[in-house]
Amino acid sequence: MSAAEQLADALDAELVTAMVAVGWTDLAEIGRERIDDTAARLAAQLSSGDEHLAAQTAIDCAGHLWPLDPEPEWWRTPLGSLVARSVGRHDASVTQAEAAAMLGVTRGTIAQLVSRGTLARHPDGGVDRAAVIARMLARSAPPHQPNCSYGSWNRNVGDYSMTLLGQVESSLNGEFTDDEVTAVADAYRAAINAALPDGVQLCGDEFYGPAVELDTAGYPVDEDGRLDIAAIIDGIDFWGIVERRAKANPAN
Which residue(s) pair with 128 in the sheet? Predict the structure, then answer.
């Protein structure tokens, strides 16, 4: 779902549905005809190169088209990413549990990131929210492929599935639709890339990283001193990702 589609859903739920509820069906029909164009315009304003326009749009829509204090997972949606770029909330802090939900990793991973200074502590306690959002946005940016292979999914994870999607499909065992399986796989991939060291990425079903010696301080390593990708993935709460997806789609 795109940011414009999220906005269209919110406009329909918050405005058009309210007009129908009070009997203004004629106005509701007019409003429904304008939803797509309005949602596209708002999404364009939020992604505009004009920082003032983007920030003002976010301020105007907050509390109407999304909550004033959204759930942590919301920030990883397309609309959440646009709002994060627009306003950032640099003065706020989040708990380690909230930071974990925003990045799709475990609290233990957040504790490690804070311990080695990858995520800044907030002066008032907790984790600096701007640092969490910055890492989230960096990890959601279109990836550039580093120049050295760190091995395939199958080689690193040691699972019977040859691909990340194959493992997700096998784990979910037919309980989700194809679109939902893909959404879980995308969230799982994002969580893996958020947990890996800077410069190391899962691109497709191959892990890549720098050809020069990698700084593994604070990350698990194998008996040969190499980055232990499997251990990092073991620390990701896959079923927590699935549970959040199930809550977002209660019909399943």
Answer: 93
